[in-house]
Amino acid sequence: MELLFYAVPLLMITLFGFAAFLLVRRARRISRTWQQGLTAQARCLRAYTTTRGGGGDSSVYTTLHHVYEFTTREGRTVRFDEENGPATVLEGDFVTVRYLPECPQRATALPPSRGKLALGTGCGLAFLGVATSFCIGFMIVAHAMFTEFTSPLP
Q1: How far apart are CA 99 and CA 103, in angstroms?
Q2: Residue 65 in contact with residue 79, Cβ under 8 Å?
Q3: Taking the model in full, what pTM does it have?
Q4: Contact criterion met (CB below 8 Å) for 128 and 19
Q5: 5 with 66: CB under 8 angstroms?
Q6: Quick one: 112 exposed, middle or buried, by C-beta within 10 A (0-12, 13-18, 19+)?
Q7: CB under 8 Å to 138, separation ≥6 — which residues?
Q8: Blockwise average pLDDT, block size 10, the chain, 154 residues
């Protein structure tokens, strides 16, 4: 039973570490695309929203998606879906996208905003750090309690 108080927080710490890795990898990919990517004109084929939550007393979260299509310099037609784009882009609008030649399907229509990207990544990493610290603190307290209760009385 005591093992449960160590295994669950360690599993959570592992998941938080993986989430931090994905967050940093995404930020590096977007930053690299903004710095080194090629540009192309893309057409918005579709704009739609997805929702999650809303069960019982929980909040509803809505995410705006855009589906864009563009042609690379090599003549390849690429279609991609991007979340959290500007609400002012409607179906049929033309926008500038940036893409890396080796993976044009990971293009972005988001305008370069390094400060916003750094702030969002930093806040996400700070949240994951606090959650990891909480798990470590929980394991320390659990260990102290188990040690206290298993030590022989004087």
Answers
A1: 7
A2: no
A3: 0.79
A4: yes
A5: no
A6: middle
A7: 5, 9
A8: 90 98 96 95 96 83 95 96 92 96 94 94 98 97 84 59
